[in-house]
Amino acid sequence: MTTASSPHNPQSTVDLGAQYITCTPHYAKTHQSFYDELLAGGILKPLISPIDGMVTKEGDCNFVAPHGVSSIINHYLKQSGADICFRQRVTQINLRDNKWEVSRETGSSEQFDIVVLTMPAPQILQLRGDITNLISECQRQQLESVSYSSRYALGLFYEAGTKIDVPWAGRYITSNPCIRFISIDNKKRNIESSEIGPSLVIHTTVPFGVTHLEHSTEDVQELIFKQLENIVPGLPQPVATKCQKWRHSQVTNAAANSLGQMTLHLQPLLVCGGDGFTQSNFDGCITSALCVLEALKNHI
Question: Which UniProt keywords apply (predicted)?
Answer without folding.
Answer: FAD, Flavoprotein
